[in-house]
Design goal:
Number of strands: 6
Largest sheet: 2 strands, antiparallel
Number of helices: 2
Radius of gyration: 27 Å
Order of helices and strands: HHEEEEEE
Distance between the termini: 106 Å
Shape: elongated
Strand order of the largest sheet: 1-2
C-alpha cells in the first residue's frame, strides 16, 4: 500500500513540474495580465474587445490575432503583420499605418490599400498613395496630408475622386472646383453652398443629395442619377447634361428636366 501511495505521489509531482515548465520553469503565461499593448506585442491572439488606445504596435506580428471590436483608436500599426487578423468592428479612428502586410478582416467601409488602412477617421499623414487604387473608397474625418493619385484630392476630411463612396458625406460649402466625381456615390450627401464649378459628375449617383444653392457652373451631369435631389437655388449656368435618370425633388426656378436634359436659361 505504501509503495502504491509513493508511486501516485511521484506521478503527481511529475505532472506539477511539467505544468510549471510549460512557461519556462515556473514563468508566468505571457498572455496573462491587463496590459493589452504588451500582450499584442508578445503575439497573444485573443485581443477581442481590448483597449489598445494609442498603442504602439509598429512592426508587431499580429498574425491570426482576434482584434474584433477592440479599441485601436490612435494606435500605430506601421509595418505590422496583419495576416488573417480579425479587426471587424474595431475602432480604427486616428489609426496610423503604412507598410502593413497580410490580409486582415476589416469592417465595412475600411480597406487595406498599399499597406495603409483607409476608412473614416484614418490618419494618413505622409501616406504615399500616389499609385493606389482607391475605387469605392469610403472616408470622412481623414487627417494628415497624403500623396494621392491623379484626379484625387482630400477635401474636408473626405477623399474626393472618381468612384468615391461619399454617401451621407457632409460637404457643405466645400470647394470642389474641377473635382472628378465620375461614378461617385453621393447618395444623401450634403452639398449645400458647395462650389462644383466645372466638376465632373458624369454617371454620379446623387440620390437624395442636397445641392441647395450649390454652384454647378459648367459642371457635367451627363448620366447622373438625380432621384430626389434638391437643387433649389443652384447655379446651373452652362451645365452639361443628357442621359440623366430619376426625378429631382426640386430644381432652380425656370429649370426643368426633359428627356434626361436639364433645360433652363444658359444651359449647355
Amino acid at each position: 500500500m505504501g509503495r502504491v501511495y509513493s508511486l501516485l505521489l511521484s506521478a503527481l509531482l511529475i505532472v506539477a513540474m511539467g505544468g510549471l515548465s510549460a512557461y519556462g520553469g515556473g514563468k508566468k503565461d505571457p498572455c496573462t495580465g491587463d496590459d493589452s499593448e504588451l500582450k499584442a506585442r508578445r503575439g497573444c491572439k485573443n485581443l477581442k474587445y481590448r483597449d489598445l488606445t494609442n498603442a504602439d504596435l509598429t512592426n508587431a506580428d499580429l498574425t491570426n490575432a482576434k482584434l474584433d471590436w477592440a479599441d485601436l483608436s490612435g494606435a500605430d500599426l506601421t509595418n505590422a503583420n496583419l495576416t488573417n487578423a480579425d479587426l471587424y468592428g474595431a475602432n480604427l479612428t486616428g489609426v496610423q499605418s503604412g507598410g502593413i502586410t497580410g490580409t486582415p478582416r476589416l469592417s465595412h467601409g475600411w480597406q487595406l490599400v498599399e499597406g495603409y488602412l483607409i476608412g473614416p477617421g484614418a490618419d494618413l499623414e505622409n501616406a504615399n498613395l500616389e499609385n493606389a487604387n482607391l475605387t469605392g473608397v469610403r472616408s470622412g474625418g481623414i487627417t494628415g496630408t497624403p500623396i494621392l493619385p491623379p484626379r484625387w484630392q482630400l477635401v474636408k476630411g473626405y477623399l474626393i475622386g472618381p468612384t468615391a463612396d461619399l454617401r451621407k458625406a457632409n460637404l457643405t460649402g466645400a470647394n470642389l472646383t474641377g473635382a472628378d466625381l465620375n461614378k461617385a456615390n453621393l447618395t444623401d450627401a450634403k452639398l449645400t453652398d458647395a462650389d462644383l464649378t466645372d466638376a465632373n459628375l458624369t454617371d454620379a449617383v446623387l440620390l437624395g443629395a442636397d445641392l441647395t444653392y450649390a454652384v454647378l457652373l459648367g459642371a457635367d451631369l451627363t448620366g447622373a442619377d438625380l432621384t430626389g435631389a434638391v437643387l433649389t437655388g443652384a447655379n446651373l449656368y452652362a451645365v452639361k447634361s443628357g442621359g440623366i435618370t430619376g426625378t429631382p425633388k426640386a430644381l432652380p426656378d425656370g429649370w426643368k428636366l426633359i428627356n434626361g436634359y436639364l433645360i433652363g436659361k444658359h444651359a449647355d
